[in-house]
Amino acid sequence: MFKHILVPTDGSELSKKAIDGAITLARTVGARVTAYACLPQYPYSPYSDVAIEPPGDFQTRSEREARTHLQEIEDAARSAGVACESRTSVHPSPYLGIIEAAESGGCDVIFMASHGRRGLGSLLIGSETQRVLTHTKIPVIVYR
């Protein structure tokens, strides 16, 4: 079965629920976990002379927020006796970072949450989960 589970997080409540499911699965099948957070690119506009937040401050804040989210997964894994490591990367779209982290980390499954949008809303809004599902060959477990 699965030996290495990638668990992406954005700190949302839905993401936090998926953490519990992923840790339970990992403990049950004896897998290890890699927690992943995608850092946003700096929202630089070449057409603006004003920066809302200096790039260094933006990066520091993004890394601090990601570290907080990843720590939740690490703590849950430690409490369950599951081996866990954490990774971050910067990508323009989180789904690209998720897929890259799973591939480069040798993960054999991606475990992530979904908002469960249906109909026209799902077509217009889309979701990172949907993008991961359509762009990776690695199995994806969608937790709702």
Notable features of this structure?
144 residues; alpha/beta; Rossmann fold
Can you give a write-up of this model?
The protein has helices at residues 13-29, 55-80, 94-105, 119-125, 128-135; strands at 4-8, 32-39, 84-90, 109-113, 140-143. It is an alpha/beta fold and 144 residues long. The protein has a single domain, classed as Rossmann fold (3-Layer(aba) Sandwich), CATH 3.40.50. A five-stranded parallel beta sheet has the order 3-2-1-4-5, sandwiched between helices. The longest helix is centred in the middle third of the chain and has 26 residues, at 55-80. It starts with a strand and ends with a strand.
Short structural summary:
The protein has 5 helices and 5 strands. With 144 residues, the chain is an alpha/beta fold.
Any idea of the CATH class? Answer: Alpha Beta
Distance between the termini: 21 Å
At the fold tier of CATH, the topology name is Rossmann fold
Order of helices and strands: EHEHEHEHHE
